[in-house]
Amino acid sequence: MPPLLASRHTGRVIVTQPRRVAARAAARRLAQLDGSALGTRVGFTVRGERSVGPQTRVEFVTAGVLLRRMLDDPGLDGVDAVIIDEGHERAIETDLLIGLLGEVRQLRDDLTLVAMSATLDADRLATVIGTDDAPAPIVDHTVAAFPLTERWAPSPAPRMDERGVTWAFLDHVARTTASAAGELTRSDPTADVLVFVPGAREVSEIARRLREATDGFDVRELHGQIPRPSRMP
To answer: Where does the Helicase ATP-binding domain lie (predicted)?
Structure first.
């Protein structure tokens, strides 16, 4: 979608991502597909880091970055399109951004506004982006579905205390992950396991526990505080 809009507009295309690591990764991937150096035709801006230039056509940002930019430039001069990616991730910043962009569109009928998500309440958001009488068009795309098995594994220890997520709960998540991964890889040695936890501290602690408790698993951490790689793999 970003390259498509960039080919139809002369101004910049802004793409919001819910997290810094996603904005950086998406920009690097699109630059790689475009065959251009990061920061030229494709760039990104996150808190504390910026890689854009005068030739940048597609810029990936977090919702917070775009909100602060709109405080200084409410009309988004030079921007022809805004894509809100992962629109199902409801947050104050995202909701406020959608409201402000809706007001900008009332003043600028040349501004293209797109919301994307795999699990979005499309009908509801279409009326927010458009109006009740003239909702925004909805484009559906069917993708392959894969089987999902749910296993309930409640923790014997409290999940939270006055200091936040407890060490005992992190131990439980690590044990549950190791057990599930062991069962899965016995039937499919190429399988991967994805674990969601709320913050960088929790990610690092669970990763450390998995490295100590398992043998042969390649444990990778993914969060916004990971240093930027020196080069593309």
So the answer is: 1-138
